[in-house]
Every structure is written in C-alpha cells, then in structure tokens.
Batch of 4 targets.
Target 1
Amino acid sequence: MLRKLPLYLALLLLTQCSKCKNDPRPVDPVSQLPPATQTGANTFGCLVNGQLYTPKGYAGVSNFAVLYEPGPTGANLNILTYRITSTGRQYLVVACGPITQPRTFSLSIPVTEGAASYVDTSRPQPCDSYDGNQAPSYRRGTLTITKLDVNAGIISGTFEFTLAQPGCDTIKVTQGRFDKKL
C-alpha cells in the first residue's frame, strides 16, 4: 500500500494542477447581444458570421444612428452603424421604406423594399465592401419593424441577411436587433 502512495499523490497533484489553468470558457456571442427591447433603449447588435457586432468607438459622429424620414407615402428608414477595431473599421447599414406601420421588409435583390451593406476595411479589396446592389452580388434577408410609435418617438425591429460576391467569403448577419428613440 505504501508503494502506491507516491502514485496516488502524483495523480492527485496532476488533477489539481489541471484546475489551476487560467483558461476561461469561451463566451457565447448570443449572450452578449443587447436584449430585443421596444422601449427606445438606443441599442443595436447582431452576429456577423457568428461574431458579436455592436457599435463601438467614435470617429466624429455617432456610431449608431437611425434616420426616420417621413414622406407622402410613408417614411424611409436608414440604420447606420460602425465599429472601430484594432485592425480597421466595420460599417453595417440597413435601410427600408416606405414604412407606414410595423411589418417585414425584404432586403433581397432586386431592391424593392430595402437594402443592406457591410464594409470591413481590414479585408483586402474587393472583399472589403459588400454593397449588395451591384451585379453579380447576392443579397437575401429581411428587416422586421416590430414597433413604430411616432408619438413616443420609438422604432424597434429585428433583421437578418446574407451578402455574397464572387471570390469573397459570404457575410451572414443573424439575430440582429435595434431599439431607438428617434
């Protein structure tokens, strides 16, 4: 029994040291998204190819702007965001219209109801810009206005879309949400 004691002590030491590693568990990007609210919370977030995207940094203008422009047949909506990273800047824009009430808009080509674009300056050209409006580009997705309260000045919604162009990686934007006080 005494001859096995060093073996047991070595195994115990080994198992205890494996717990000492400072190896945090990866954080689920979905859990870092802002909640999908409808209160005018001034929030925006989505996943771009599974990675968290929220507005970040300051380049002289707000990193999250919602332009709601009323017109004779309804309002046009432009959601403009950017984030500054250690390798460059990323821009994500979603637009639709005319809006007269909450509903779902198509972001697909051809442009009839809405559009979406993504730019990442850290990518090599021409794969740094996904406008999605120029052939032979691909864009498919939706933008859903979940709340439109002009009197209270609140617009909220969700979105998702896919952008692709020849020779470049596909951009998949999922679980998008925004909630803005106009």
Target 2
Amino acid sequence: MAGSPHNQLEYEASDDPYCYPGTTVLKNVPDIRDAAALEQFEIALTTQRGREPFPSGRLSATHYKAIHRHLFQDVYPWAGRFRTVRIHKGSSTFCYPENIDGEMRTLFAWLRKQRLLQDLTSVEFATAGAHFLAELNAIHPFREGNGRTQLSFLALLATKAGHPLRLRRLDPATFMAAVIESFRASEAALAAVVLDLIGLEN
C-alpha cells in the first residue's frame, strides 16, 4: 500500500521461536536468512498484494486477520495468526499474547457499537479512527506487519464510512511519531494525521 511505513519499529523478543536460531531474522516462506533481503522481499510482496482486492468481510476481528493473511501470505507461514510471544519496543510493552484474543474482541465490539464509524463528520471519524488505531497498536496482535494491516483496515473502514483515505499523502515518519504518541495516551496527533488523509474536500 502506497505510503505505508515499514519496519519502523525494531522488536525485541526473548527466545523468539519466530526467528531462525541465533538470529533476529524471522522465519519466512522463501527461507531468506538475510535481514535486509527479507525486508526487501516483504516490501515487494506485500505491496503487490496490497494492490489486489482485499478479502471481503464484516470489518470484524476475523476480517482483520484475513487482511493480514492476504498481505503477508507469501512472506510468513503464520500470516493471519496472532503472535504467541511477548514483544516490546524500548520500555513500551505490547499486549501479552495470552490477552490478545480478548482485547481484540473488546476492541471490535466497541467498533460495532460505534456502527463502524459511519454517519460521522470528517473530524469525528478522524478522532474515532485514531482511537481505534491507537488501541490496535497497543495490542499489536501480529509478530510482524501490524502497521501495514492497521492502515489497510482503516482504509476499508474509511471508505465504508464515506471518508476515503488518500494514503499517498501519508508521511511515514509523521505517522510513526503520532502512533508512538498515541501509545502514551495522547491521540491528538494521530487524529490529525487521519484527518489529513481524509482531505478537506470531505
């Protein structure tokens, strides 16, 4: 997907079964053992998949998993499945794996209660969409590919709600800074990014 940030976060995980022994390289479908080569392969294949029609669904947690699988099916054998290890970035720890399923159910129940963010103004959608993204980021359900899946799903959500996103406008550095800030409980910067992606004409 154009403008999607990639590998902006370097994860740390102890005794990570997702990686080849003695390395931080994630086990992958083509069995690439070089981190830089794997990154380029992932970018190329997920970009290609991002141009294809996404799986249909009801914008549910199950649909979210299907989108991750669609994007990363050529790269990781566990595409579309929630992670089973704890991961963190610096002092920020993401949702423990044993809690992911429950947290995702809670978040998507909230989304349904909000009627999939429909019948909102652009500002209201940006605010609610930022909250949804912030919660998704805190859960970080997958071992890799969370950012791309978040944006892909938000784009589907926005289109259904009548506020299509212009992802080519996305600045990855600005987006990542806003996501990090949302982890610290301030979602204003992320809402501003979403509103900018919607554009003034909405």
Target 3
Amino acid sequence: MSDPHNYPILRRTVFQFPAIDNHAHPLLKEGHRDAFPFEGLVSEAQGSALTNDSTHTLSSLRARKDLAKLYGLDPLTTTWEQLKEHRKTIQYSQLIEACFQPTNIQCLLLDDGLGGVEEVGQDYQAHDALTRSPTKRIVRIEVVAEGLMKTVLTPHLGTDTLDVAPILSQFHDSLYYAFEADARHPDVVAFKSVVCYRTGLDISTFISQASLKFSILEIFKTYQAGGRIRLCHKALNDMVVQVALEVAASHNIPVQFHTGLGDNDITLLLSSPSRMQAIIKAYSNTKFVLLHGSYPYTREAGYLTATYSNVFLDFGEVFPMVSRRGQENILRQIFELCPTNKIMWSTDGHWWPESFYLGSIQARECMFKILKEMVEDEDLTEDEASEIVKKALFHNANALYNLGLAPDFDDTAGT
C-alpha cells in the first residue's frame, strides 16, 4: 500500500480546494423531504427498476457504505432500508449541514426547471445559506418555451380552426424576448436544454416552416383535448434550442446540454454528443457545455471538446451513479483528449442533500487517484496535477460563467 503522506500538495488541493458546482438542482423543502424514492439518489431508473433493482448496483452498494459513515452507522452491516429509516430521525437542517460541510462547495449553479420544483423544491436563493458565495441560476429553456406556448394557445381554445402562422410568429418572438430578459438577469449565468430527452441531440441547423406549423397543430390538439403542453416535436424543439443559442451568444453565457446518462425517457442512441457536431459548427460563437461526462459517450465528448473551441465538458452525475471503477475509467477517458482548461466538475445534486455529499467526496477521491497515477507515471509534476484540480473544481467554471469569484483557499498553508 502506498504511503498516505505521499503527494501532500496534491492531496491538500484535491480534498480542500473550494469548488464551484456548475450544475445542480434544488433541495426538497423540509415538509417534502420524502417526496421521492430515496433510491433516486443512485439511479436514473424509474418504477420497479428503481425501487427493486437500483440498490443492487455497485454504485449503490458503495453509496450505502459512504452514507452509513456519514450517519455514524456501521458501514459493513447497515442495510439500505436501515439507512432510509435512520435519516428520517435526523433533523432536516442538521442533515443538510452534515452533508454540505465536507463538500467545500463555494458556489452553486442551480437548474430550477426540474419537474416538481415549484411544488416540493426550495427556491434557488434559499441555497445561499449553504455556501460562501451566492447561488446562481440556470434557466431550463424547454420550461420557458412550454409556458409561452400555453400563453399563445390558450386564447384559441374552443375554436374549430387555427391560423398557425401568426401563432408561430408570436411564439418565436415571445421566446426570443423571454430569453433576452433571462440572460440579462444578474442571477442567471447559463441556459440549459433537455432536448436530449425530448427529441435527441441531432439538432437541425435548418427547420422548415411546414414542420413548425405541423408541430404547433399537434400540440394544440393535445391541449384542446385536455392534455398538458409538452415540447416533444423535433422541429419545434430544435427551434427553441436555436433561439437560445442565438441569445446566449449575444450575452456571452453558455448553454448546457444534457448528454448521455439519463432515465428511460431518453433514446440512448440519440444522446451521444457526436450528433451535435453540425449545430456546434453552426453556432461557433455560442459556448456549449456537455453535461454528465456524456457517459457512456465520454470519448466522443472529449473529441468535441478538444476539436472545437466553443465546447466544454462537465463530469458530474457519474458521481455517485457509476461504480468506482467506472468513475475512474470515465475520468481517464476525459484526460485522454480534453484540454484541462475546459473540464468542470458538478454534483448534479438534486432533492436530497446526500446527492451533493456523494457527488463531492467521490469525485475528489477519484481525481486524487487518477492524478496521483499520472504523477507517478511522470506524465505530470505534482504542481501540474494540483493546478488541473484547481481548474476543474473552480477556475474553469469561474471563467466560463463570468462569476468573478476568488477561491477561499490559502495556498501557503501547509507548505
């Protein structure tokens, strides 16, 4: 076993340097702390695949041990059900504090467009109390678009015919101005798209008017019949993305894209970022952030990040949803090709404070192991490895999102 005192500079940087969590979601309100199955902490599965199968994954078995230690329980004997019962006995504010204190997260960037946030989630500003720097907001563009579509279609309910052309024009213009207003808001630092879930990442650079009109007619029929408005028509979804990309470029804010790992609402073959190559080329002045390491398409994401100056790669969510060896392989694949000034860490924390805890401690453990190996192989010096950690945890996100923060860290301590 290697000497635990080896590489003290790298060790201190990895485990103590503050982090900007560049993609996360709100915590549950105290009164709704058990609103969703706790198994969602370690899996994107749904239904019986979540409640029956997810606790048998290696990532879940590891998370169970990590959480048992956090709760002060025996990591070798505590079961998943015992974990769930024990956390109910912990005061919610104390649970949040216990989870966040070890993470050393200095700033949270929250996508508050996750379904259910308005009913059971905390407001993004409520998270300011958890970090040393104020929380910033990421606007989910499909949520904005669906609200505007409802606004333009509601006056036409009950009519037998629909003049689609002016409605399309009204929707496009209102979408543009809404994105403009969001981009100007001092708390908004990025847009986020879930087009990956809706119609896939093969985003068109040209969209026919006929396809757009047909999409609106289909949405109107569903809405008129009492269904909810959901953007899941390729032409319209691609248009929404295009408008967001245009506005983002004019305000120098990035657009985050869900890529890869997700629930069963995703068509896996359409979740590879390689399908975004045409849109990345077409909007060369817009900064694209590929989320979740694009797993299992990490190498494709690395290629895009290395080849296009406007593409950046986040490596969140795989902590804790992938096994330890899987996490290590993902990080190795990222380092194969990605420029180290373009990678960023996140928790993809959501609902449960434990998601922020696991996303942080597991990522830091993984970074230390992989970078330590690179130092031992003489690919890097210890100082170079430490600088990569600082960039991945803080500096890259600080620059990309124009946060203007200074890391709360004393570089001279312990030297």
Target 4
Amino acid sequence: MERQLPRGYFGIGVDGISKPMNLGAILRTAHAFHASFAFTINAEFDTDLVLQSDTSVAINNMPVHVYPDLSEFSLPVGCRLVGVEITEDAVDLPSFTHPPAAAYVLGAEQDSLSPALIERCDFIVKIPTRFCVNVSVAAALVMYDRMISLGRFAERPVRVGGPTSVLPQHRHGLPKWKKKRLAKDAAAQNAAAPAPDRTGSGSD
C-alpha cells in the first residue's frame, strides 16, 4: 500500500548556486520527496552536468523554475517562503512547524542568503549542526524533517527498534459540506414527518 502523502505542498530552491552537481542532487532528492516544484534564483549551471547527478531526471517529472534574479521570483498565492540560514533569530529545524504550503530556499555554496531574500522570507530556520553542511545535504535534511513532521507514520516504540503495530489505514470521510447537507436534509424530513397517533384504540 502506498503511503498517504501529507496535505499541502512544497517546493525547494537555491539562491545563486554555481555547482551543477549540487543542483542535480537537490533536484533528485526533491523528486524523491514528492516536491511540487523546484527553483533557482540568480544561478549559473549546465543542464547536462546537472543531469549527471540528477539521475531521476526531475526536470521531466516536476516544474523547475529558473529565475534570473530576485525581482523575477514569485510563489503561488498562500505559499510561505522559508529561508534556511544560520542567523541569531533562526528557529532550530526540529522545533519548527512547517506551513502546509511552503517553499524552502537555501544559499549557494560557501555563501549566505542575500539580505534582500531574507527580507522576503516568512520564516528563517537553521539546522543545528557544528558547522555548515553541503547545500544538497541541507536540502535533504529540510525535506526529511518536513516529511516526518507532517506525514503519517506508526509511533516510535519506547524500546529500541521499529514499531510493533502497523499504522491503520486512513479512512476518508464525506466532505464537510456534504455532511452538513445530509444533516440538514435529515432534520427537514424529521420536521415534516406526521406525528405518531397516541390516541390509542382501547375497548370497553
């Protein structure tokens, strides 16, 4: 049985990336984690070199937006931008609640997110490591954290090892609007039904 995906959607991208192998790794991982889209801002890369590490050919399976600069960058309505950067006020990733609709953006190799891009972000998160990790590794950690935070998985056992019970299959109920309509129709039928005869037919 295929696991049910979390509600919402997400995209992931990089600001100013210059190493195509890193970009390819990010795209491949995004494809694996069911990203809805990926993007680059102010990036320079060779597509043929990107495909050397993106062996899943993500560009054929999800939209990849290439923005020449920040002024061209845009997101869908309601999508929150989450910057991944080490700043004093950044939220530790394990303590962060992911928005249902989100786009995550990382800085390029040996560089940080530009101040203008940080200003555009709704949230800034950081990965609590001793030092900076490779940008493709950071992207994978963010996507994994989103998956385990929002996905449905069997509870971890108290003891070492895997879960002893299988996650029950999710049951899909009726839409709320249909439930309300059915309840309203049932109430109307009860109100219109004739009152029961309580006179009785007693005999002498």
